[in-house]
Amino acid sequence: MNWAVGVLGGTPSRRAVQCRAEGFCLPAILIPAVLFLVLTVLPTGLTTGAHAADTTDDADFIPLRGEVCELGSETRLFPEQLIARRGDFVCPPERWASTGRHLYFRVRDPGLLRPGSGRWHILSEFVRAEKATVSAIYNDGHIESQTVTGGALRGRWAAGNYLDFPLPDRSAGFAHIFIGYENVAVQSGMIRKINAAREERFLSDQRMLFLLYGLLSGILFAVCVYNLALYAYIGMRFQLYYCLTALAFLAHGSSWSGIIVYFIPDYSMASLVRTAFVSSGAGVCASTFFFIHFLEDGMLPPWIVRSLKVMALAVLSLTSFAAFAPAGLTILGDRLSSASVLVLMAFVLTAFVIAWRGGSRAVWFAAAAWILPIIGGILRASRGSGLLPQTDIIDTSLFVGLALEALLLSIGISDRLNVLRREETAGRSNGGGPYRRRGG
């Protein structure tokens, strides 16, 4: 660790000797990195291999977001009207953020969804909309139109933040496919996932996602209950903030993935999106307060503590505003909340450097834990900007990072309590009386 000490400055001997003696600094970074690779990069590689086959005539999974044209309208359009106005749709590579009370997407080449070998599932993303409709017009003239209202998701949702529209498999094949959102509160650019999957592939992917979400939710719930029990017995404040963080991330993962509909079938699309926004802000806010109280006493100067608290509350306020903002202000709310997170991260990075230079032991656990959701966030941002493909694995990477963060911070809490116990014992042996707990 001497090279890192030399780069960041400070007193090298103190930190270098501490890391060598305790032997946890490098493993604290490597262990979560390996876990993150196993749970995200490896499945991504497998998925990429599977998607490589999708370029053949036997494709069973087709990402459609880059294959659709879009149209904004102030009035509701029916299949016959959509066919008549198909020339008004704006198609790639032109980028246009369509707006209007209603948004419609047209698959440019319906022939990509070949007939035979089972029915196709059109998978569209949850958004703040009153209704979502898929209309398929077959070459023999048959029209299949399916509508999901925002408050009736029972049986029409799929893990991965999808609405599921299973289309009958007819030998005639598809002539037109339209996906529409009515009374929508977002621009078309905020609808990032529209896919098509054959029945067998759809069921296989759903089983994988259920298994992964169950594992990650179980980790979050287990570490929360464990530390809540410790908090009831020991009463350290950072344990309470940790439990609030884990609960918020559990709510975020469950709402973002749509898995909460499995337990509350009547949950609406708007409620899912709002829960995801508010819980993400609450998780960021609670984790920041946890970080402040988790570090050793006197490690951070008062100005950085005040800045962290103010920005954490700002993130919570702005994400809540973005969740409940009227249709005309949703984009502004989304951008303001994203900007507040970036400012908060700048203060967090500053606090990390200050604590590291001060010889903090606890900061290593926080750094190892927080690097995972940061990587997941970068992957999702890259996905949203088009640098990476639209895959469920990338979307799930943030959930993976949050669950592993909670697990690593739970280990860090155990280590922190051991340090406090040793300091208390040392204080008593030196005749100092009962040790006053710190960091809580």
UniProtKB/TrEMBL annotation:
Membrane-spanning residues: 26-46, 208-233, 239-264, 276-295, 310-332, 339-356, 362-381, 393-413
Listed InterPro entries: 7TMR_DISM_rcpt_extracell_dom1
Repeat among keywords: no
Sequence ranges assigned to domain 7TM-DISM receptor extracellular in this UniProt record: 211-416
Pfam families: 7TMR-DISM_7TM (PF07695)
Protein's UniProt keywords contain Membrane: yes
Keywords of this entry: Membrane, Transmembrane, Transmembrane helix
Protein's name according to its UniProt entry: 7TM protein involved in diverse intracellular signaling
Species the sequence originates in: Eilatimonas milleporae
